[in-house]
Inverse folding.
C-alpha cells in the first residue's frame, strides 16, 4: 500500500481516487478549502500542505495555469517526494478549449521541476480525456501513456501505479528526461480540432507501430 495525495478536488481527482483506492492504496485529497461537489468515493480530505507532507507520492491535478506557483508554495512538504504531474498549461478560447501553450520556452513540467529541485517530477497521463486515465481498455485501440522525468526510480514507481490504473506494460512509453514533456504538452494544441471533428468523447493521443 502506498500513501498518495491528490492535489485538487475536481473530476480528475475523483476518477483517480476511486481507482487507486480499489487498488489498495491510501488516498488523501488535498484542497485549499472545502469541497462542495466531490464526485468521488468517501475520502480523507486535508489542506494541500498537510496532504503532501503525509504522503509518499503526490499527484498534481490542479489547473495547470497556476500549478507552478501553487506547488512552489509547498516546496518543503514536497521535498524528497515523487510528484506526478497530469496537467497542461494552456490559454482558453471563448468556449473554454485550449488555445495556446502558456509556456513556450519549456514545458510546464520543467518549470515545476525547476521550482522544486528536491522533488522528483514525473509527467504522465496528460494526453487524454480524464476518464481514460483509469479506463485505458475502454477505447477501440491500444493507447499510450507517456512518461517524462529525470529520475529513473521515480518513473519506475509511476509505471507501477499506471499498472494499478489498468495500463498494460506495452502501452507505456518512457520518453526520457523531463524535457521530453514539451512534446506531450504540445499535443494539447490538437484537442480543439479533435473535439470539433468528433465531439467531446473519451479520447487519447497515442502511437502505433508495425508489428
Amino acid at each position: 500500500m502506498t500513501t498518495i495525495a491528490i492535489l485538487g478536488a475536481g473530476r480528475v481527482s475523483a476518477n483517480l481516487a476511486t481507482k487507486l483506492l480499489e487498488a489498495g492504496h491510501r488516498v488523501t485529497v488535498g484542497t485549499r478549502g472545502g469541497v462542495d461537489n466531490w464526485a468521488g468515493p468517501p475520502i480523507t480530505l486535508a489542506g494541500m500542505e498537510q496532504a503532501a507532507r503525509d504522503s509518499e507520492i503526490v499527484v498534481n491535478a490542479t489547473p495547470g495555469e497556476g500549478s507552478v506557483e501553487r506547488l512552489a508554495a509547498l516546496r518543503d512538504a514536497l521535498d524528497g517526494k515523487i510528484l506526478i504531474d497530469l496537467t497542461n498549461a494552456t490559454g482558453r478560447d471563448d468556449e473554454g478549449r485550449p488555445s495556446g501553450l502558456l509556456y513556450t520556452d519549456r514545458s510546464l513540467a520543467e518549470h515545476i521541476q525547476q521550482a522544486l529541485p528536491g522533488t522528483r517530477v514525473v509527467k504522465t497521463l496528460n494526453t487524454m480525456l480524464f476518464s481514460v486515465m483509469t479506463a485505458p481498455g475502454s477505447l477501440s485501440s491500444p493507447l499510450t501513456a507517456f512518461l517524462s522525468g529525470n529520475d529513473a526510480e521515480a518513473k519506475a514507481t509511476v509505471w507501477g501505479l499506471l499498472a494499478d490504473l489498468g495500463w498494460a506494460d506495452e502501452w507505456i512509453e518512457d520518453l526520457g528526461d523531463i524535457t521530453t514533456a514539451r512534446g506531450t504538452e504540445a499535443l494539447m494544441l490538437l484537442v480543439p480540432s479533435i473535439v470539433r471533428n468528433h465531439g467531446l468523447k473519451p479520447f487519447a493521443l497515442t502511437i502505433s507501430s508495425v508489428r
User: Anything to note?
Assistant: Helices lie at 11-22, 48-53, 67-72, 75-78, 108-115, 152-164, 181-186, 191-198.
